[in-house]
Amino acid sequence: MRNKTISIALTLFAGMLLTAAVLRSQMPSAGPQWEYAVVNGFGDKASICYGTRNGCGNDEVRTNDAVISAAMKLGDKGWELASVTESFDKNPTRTLYFKRLKSVINKNEDRR
User: Fold this and answer.
1) What is the pLDDT of residues 30-63, one digit of tens each?
2) Residue 99, beta-bridge partner list
3) DSSP-assigned letters across all residues of 5-43
4) Quick check: 9 pLDDT over 70?
5) How far, in Å, CA of 76 to CA of 92, rounded?
6) Which CATH class is domain 34-107?
7) What are the backbone dihedrals phi and psi of residue 16, each rounded to the nearest 5 degrees, phi first?
8) How far apart are CA 24 and CA 52, in angstroms?
9) Residue 32 and residue 101: Cα distance in Å, rounded?
10) How far apart are the first and last CA of the chain?
11) How far apart are CA 83 and CA 73, in angstroms?
């Protein structure tokens, strides 16, 4: 009887360890993970740079007010405006910085 009790206890303990290992592997890493995009342009031409580990994945927008059109495009896909800068040198430029949380919903989405 004692051997059977020990055997059952060890089996339950091993099952709990296995369950904990499986659950831990499915948990997201600590803290939120973000992805970033930048809209850069002025007037009727703007580009969207989607941040990747290899640099930018670009998308161009050409409309009457391309910067706001690009911003609307990102907003419709869940991107949040984080910051804006403007330059009025020889070539005026407006730069909008966006971010959004990485999630299961976004992983397989074509960003463009």
Assistant:
1) 678 899 999 999 999 999 999 988 888 889 999 9
2) 36, 80
3) HHHHHHHHHHHHHHHHHHHHHHSPPSS--EEEEEEEEET
4) no
5) 26
6) alpha beta
7) -65, -40
8) 27
9) 7
10) 66
11) 17
- 3 state DSSP class of 107: helix
Surface-to-core class of residue 79, CB atoms within 10 Å of its CB (0-12 exposed, 13-18 middle, 19+ buried): buried
Is the distance from CB of 99 to CB of 82 less than 8 angstroms? yes
What DSSP assignment string belongs to 53-78?
A: TTEEEEEEE-STTHHHHHHHHHHHTT
Task: Tell me how many degrees the CA angle 107-27-53 measures, rounded to the nearest 5.
Answer: 40
Residue 80 contacts residue 99 (beta carbons within 8 Å): yes
The pTM of the full predicted model, rounded to 2 decimals, is 0.66
The whole-angstrom separation of Cα 56 and Cα 50 is 5
